[in-house]
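The following block was generated as part of the benchmark described in Methods. Ligand: NAP.
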Amino acid sequence: MKDSIDMEYPILTKSVPTFYFIGVTTSESSIMKVFPLWAEALGRPEVVIEGIDHALHDDHGAYRHTVAQIKFDPLSLGGLVTTHKIDILEAAGDMFEILHSSAQLTGEVSCISKRNGILVGHAKDVLTAGLSLDAVLGENYFARTGGHVMNIGAGGSGKAIALHLIQKENAGDRPRRFVMVNRSKPRLVKCQEMVESLETDIQFEYILNNDPRVNDEIMASLPEGSVVINSTGMGKDRPGSPITDHGLFPRNGVAWEINYRGELDFWHQAKAQEESRGVFVEDGWLYFLHGWAQHIAEVLHIEMDKEIFKKLASLVADLRPELVPIPRSG
Ligand SMILES: NC(=O)c1ccc[n+]([C@@H]2O[C@H](COP(=O)([O-])OP(=O)(O)OC[C@H]3O[C@@H](n4cnc5c(N)ncnc54)[C@H](OP(=O)(O)O)[C@@H]3O)[C@@H](O)[C@H]2O)c1
């Protein structure tokens, strides 16, 4: 049914509490199967998930319409934004009564929620990428190993990972050096501006590069125990990998492919060196679970602790797409 609370953005009056997933191809995500199970487990089975697909860099009016739907309809509770995190803030930032410091610092909104009718925007990637990375590395990782970090892809996730490490209080959880690689300049510059607005003892290097062979060379120069992260979306959003099949991962290091579905070439390349070079290989499933758990908790006003998260994760373990390593050279 149409409503006319705001003539510029006609909104729908929902008849059931609705959590929105704002993305590009939302119906294909595993969350459509995960959400009903989690809503039930969290004691909120009446809440449904609904996808809103926007074109890449959609019109500002279209983004404002989506935000208005949540802002003005009482049963539109909030949602998670992927892909359009920067665009939503640019197009509709003025519609939020509260923009959390995470959103201001990163220039993104990933979570739209309401507190007593007030519209709130958060950027949760620093928290959720951080929870995932911490689970992989454990405490004091960099003091234990002396490893560096090479992150390929200076977009939302890459920036969030950098910020998470900068914010680590224990010196042993911060790498001495962080190499950020991006294929074009604007994101690299934005990342550099963000880092330089903060105080950090991590030595950041920014490398403009789109050649996988150069990434191989950078990777080969890293010390043992280093962490190499693919935050480019290559292997899911676009074919390929930012490194070649001949690239050698740091001995006894960590390779993190932040996606969990798709061709995942980078994950397969790392997996092929798991034994020969002692590489610990992680994909993005845990990141996916932490991301959704934190956003749902914010929107539904639930305290998300380790026990609840563990329960939610085990509930959907069977839904994890199976990844089977295939033999490769390298
Ligand atoms: N597992 C999860 O739950 C989870 C959570 C968050 C994100 N993700 C996934 O992670 C990927 C990245 O997400 P995002 O939000 O950070 O995306 P994003 O903001 O679009 O960032 C991707 C960045 O990678 C850069 N890039 C692409 N190919 C490159 C290459 N070959 N070498 C160097 N840089 C390259 C892009 O450069 P330009 O600046 O030139 O475009 C862009 O800055 C996506 O596939 C997303 O779906 C997964």
